[in-house]
Amino acid sequence: MMPMRNKINQWKFPEEIVSCEWLKERFTDKTIRLYDCTAYLHYTDDHPSKPYDVVSGLENYKKKHIPTAAFLDLQEELSEQKSPYSFTLPDYHELASRFMKLGVGDPFHIILYSRNGVQWATRVWWMLFILGFKRVSILDGGIKEWEALGYEIETSVTSYSHAKFEENIDKSVFVDKDVTLGAMNKNDCILLNALTSDIHKGENPRYGRPGRIPGSLNIPFHELVDSKTGKLVSPEKAIKVFSQENISSDDNILNYCGGGIAATLNAFIQRQLGFKNMQIYDNSMSEWAMDSTLPMETD
Q: H or E stretch including 58?
């Protein structure tokens, strides 16, 4: 693994990241549909087999949101309800149908944001990407940046009429524990943990058994976001973050985290830097740490 040497001063796919200023200038554009994707994780020690309770962002959406935004309920509407894990991908065809019923699809340009971390928006972004719908962008900084710029907010609930898109499903991006287990023994694959360093090192038993998947490197997802603004770091800063771990755009990377959310942010930035081979372990440590047959490693 060699670090990236080429200086990059812009994203590979800049149309997939839009600014609040860009959006404000296009409020009269009826081909744009905006969605709030917020969810909250309430950590608890009451039930060790479940690392957190998921709370929908709907109530806070009703209190205030960016004008014209509708709400996507990630856990209730876009995750598999029969799974023991919070955010498991549903059947791909069913997922596409749910998105279209919520107004996501052609001929619209879909803009996604979340209010407590961009990783919720990148999760939905990847879900749409693998279904074949590509006209979707992240609102950089979300509602935090929107309010910082002094732009108006609203409380009225928006819902959109049905849309359609042609499914072109890519099943190679989201993978399961068997693929992840196999990747442990592959020299040409990097396992990359997007969780905080205390969990990675084994100092925090948030997901049951403490530690990480053996052989993993660690780039906490928050290192790719400006802590003050909530906006993505610059391409130059992102390259530095990956280069410090000797990760190259030529490497095969399998990203994981706690439940397949934060890992989507790392994967999104990898794509923007020109990485070509990245995967996401869907249920991540919520599944791995609770399966005593799977190996764990600590510092």
A: helix 58-63
Note whether 50 and 9 are within 8 A (CB): no
What are phi and psi for residue 297, nearest 5 degrees? -140, 145
pLDDT, tens only, 230-263: 999 999 999 999 999 999 899 999 999 999 999 9
State in words which class domain 14-148 has. alpha beta
In the chain, where the domains are located: 14-148, 174-288
pLDDT band per the 50, 70, 90 thresholds, residue 106: very high
CA distance 95 to 160: 17
CATH topology of domain 174-288: Oxidized Rhodanese; domain 1 (3.40.250)
Q: Is the pLDDT of residue 215 over 80?
A: yes
Take residue 264 and report the two structure tokens written for it: 């989507």
pTM summary value: 0.94
Measured CA to CA in angstroms, residue 97 lies from 24, 91, 94, 107, 197 at distances of 30, 10, 5, 16, 38
Q: Strands of 17-18's sheet, edge to edge?
A: 17-18, 136-139, 109-113, 32-36, 70-71
